[in-house]
């Protein structure tokens, strides 16, 4: 067995032991109960997350304009310059002396386009990382997606405390992913819930109207 296969085996063995250990510890415990008004609670939480995501999207747009747009515009201008240069050379392609210059222009254009593509990927990844970090911070201060929908029995042992905090960590990660995914993704979740529960849209409208009538 080579080194790479050995490392892969060790990694899978670790995951198997970890999952098995968690199942062994958590399965015997009493299950948390659902809130009687779980749909209403989840709609309220998802509506709050949509509002947070909308603010975050706008903030990231400003962040993108300030930090990334100048370099992106420079690279885009460079691509346009090489496109015009190549187009000019191709217009006079009947001149054999232009062949080397045409090839050089094509290479320059390819390199410029590749640089722009790499920078766009870097920009998207940076914005996504910023959104995930912000989502984690929002979750840490108490705005979460699932915690309000479940009633956990009062923890009476170390293992029950561990289960409660494990759930909170998973909820925190889930909330960060929802916020980082943007308001459109959360809206899609609400629409899918609406397909299962036809009166969901009315509840969302009532909740939004209640916010308007009782501003903080």
What keywords describe this structure?
216 residues; mainly alpha; two-stranded antiparallel sheet; 7 helices; 2% strand
Q: How does this structure look, described?
A:
This protein is mainly α and 216 residues long. It has one domain. It is built from 7 helices and 2 strands, in the order αβαααβααα. The protein has a two-stranded antiparallel sheet with strand order 1-2. The protein starts with a helix and ends with a helix. 10% of the residues are buried. The mean pLDDT is 79.
Q: Uncertain runs with pLDDT below 50, 5 residues or more?
A: none
**Rg computed from alpha carbons, rounded to a whole number of angstroms:** 27 Å
**Largest beta sheet: strand ordering:** 1-2
Per the principal axes of the C-alpha atoms, what is the gross shape?
elongated
Number of domains: 1
**Helicity range of the residues?**
over 70%
Number of H/I helices: 7
Alpha-beta content class: mainly alpha
Return the string of H and E elements.
Answer: HEHHHEHHH
Average pLDDT score: 79
The largest sheet, given as strand count, sense and whether it forms a barrel, is: 2 strands, antiparallel
What is the number of beta strands? 2
Beta content comes to under 5%
| Cα distance spanning the termini | 64 Å
Keywords: Membrane, Transmembrane, Transmembrane helix
């Amino acid at each position: 067995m080579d080194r790479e296969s050995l490392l892969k085996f060790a990694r899978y063995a670790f995951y198997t032991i970890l999952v098995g250990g968690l199942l062994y510890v958590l399965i015997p415990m009493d299950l948390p109960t659902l809130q009687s008004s779980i749909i209403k609670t989840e709609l309220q939480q998802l509506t709050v997350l949509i509002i947070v995501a909308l603010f975050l999207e706008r903030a990231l747009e400003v962040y993108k304009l300030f930090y990334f747009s100048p370099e992106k515009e420079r690279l885009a201008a460079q691509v346009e310059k090489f496109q015009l240069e190549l187009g000019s050379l191709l217009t006079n392609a009947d001149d054999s002396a232009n062949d080397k210059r045409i090839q050089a222009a094509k290479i320059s254009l390819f390199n410029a386009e590749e640089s722009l593509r790499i920078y766009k990927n870097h920009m998207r990844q940076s914005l996504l990382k910023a959104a995930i970090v912000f989502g984690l911070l929002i979750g840490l201060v108490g705005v979460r997606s699932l915690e309000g929908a479940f009633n956990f029995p009062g923890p009476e042992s170390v293992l029950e405390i561990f289960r409660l905090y494990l759930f909170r960590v998973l909820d925190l990660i889930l909330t960060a992913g929802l916020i980082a995914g943007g308001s459109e993704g959360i809206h899609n979740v609400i629409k899918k819930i609406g397909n299962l529960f036809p009166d969901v849209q009315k509840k969302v409208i009532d909740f939004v109207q209640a916010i308007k009538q009782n501003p903080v």
